[in-house]
Request: fold
Amino acid sequence: MNTTLSPAVRLLVFSLVAVWYGAAPEAADPEWRTWRGPQQDGQAQSAELPIKWGPENVVWRTELPGRGQSSPVLSGDRIFLTSALDNGRSRVVMCVDRRSGKILWQQTVWTGEPEPSHNMNGWASATCATDGTRVFAFFGKGGGLSAWSVDGEKLWQKDLGIFEGPWGTAAAPMVYRNLVIQNGDADADAFIAAFDAATGDEVWRTKRDDARGWSSPIVIQVDGHDEVVVNGDTGVRAYDPLSGKELWYCKSFSGRGTPTVTPAAGLLHTVCGLRGDTYAVRPGGHGDVTESHMAWHSPRNTSRDLPSPIVLGNQSLIMDMRRATLTSYDITTGKELWRRRLADAGTTGQFCATPVAWQNTAFFVSETGSTFAVRAGEDMEVVAVNKVNSKEDEIFRSSITPDNDRIYLRSDRALYCIR
Reply:
């Protein structure tokens, strides 16, 4: 592990230590400003969000330029998204009016010859993050990390490298206090780094294991201090958010580390990604905590896991992307409680989107746009299968974004407001 703290910004870091901003990003703000929402666990609290919907519940549908898979994030009356045009030769960040669906502005971040990317990933998969005054977008090699005002003015842009690997990038930036933290996993020169949100100056950079990865960082509070936690090919690692110092790591089993860690019930619920395996980690400790802090480990005989876990009550639900099979695990012991086929993947398409939950119901979106509303008890209960009149060539791989009494559902080429 190698951490570099820029001398020019040490004063900034030390001044941050003296200021209290809360335990985690957006802790007191209900807006869905970042990947997986205010608590970074995919949970929404509103009792007015819909459970069942159909074409008659679509308030508006907006055709988006190009193709993209970033999930919508919200601030005030605005929605922020990214997209890639001309088969990745142009990358844009855009703003959509929350109530009307009108595209308010669209700014080009980068143009050029596209880097390699998996056909299921594309070039605009990383969800934006916003602090309410700025919007942060990450595009990997073709665009790096950039900051924009909510009115579309470019504030700064950083070239973060080539991100060696055949499948592209997808890790979302995360706002912490006045820093933007970005996971830069790749087959070479992998890193995690923090940048001043106002200027783009690099505050710290820490070397990570060289392996492709797409997991987004989260922030948790442990014994009165904050830690940045990131999944990865070799396991889960925690860092000091102000200095980048690696605090602890827990080794994984089957590699890849695509899904983002889900915090719940004092544990960090983790899916390896490459042919499954799930485990839970007690946060905290120092150095290698694999033996001391792994609460449980449960093998998974799966094809490939992309979605992150979602927790309902005492159950952690994990979707097998290709087989459309949903498995429930006891969150305290890891015991498999039940395993059920949710749908015929040959008909619905795969389940790539990470689920969200509200009103004790989890929502799983298939590639064809069918959203399965599931409750978890002694067995799986499907309470609704929701659809919109999408076009045949639309592909749904983004997560739902809840918003008080409505939701936003994005396909690769359109954004739906549903109420």
Notes: The two ends are 48 Å apart (CA to CA). The first strand starts at residue 3 and ends at 5.
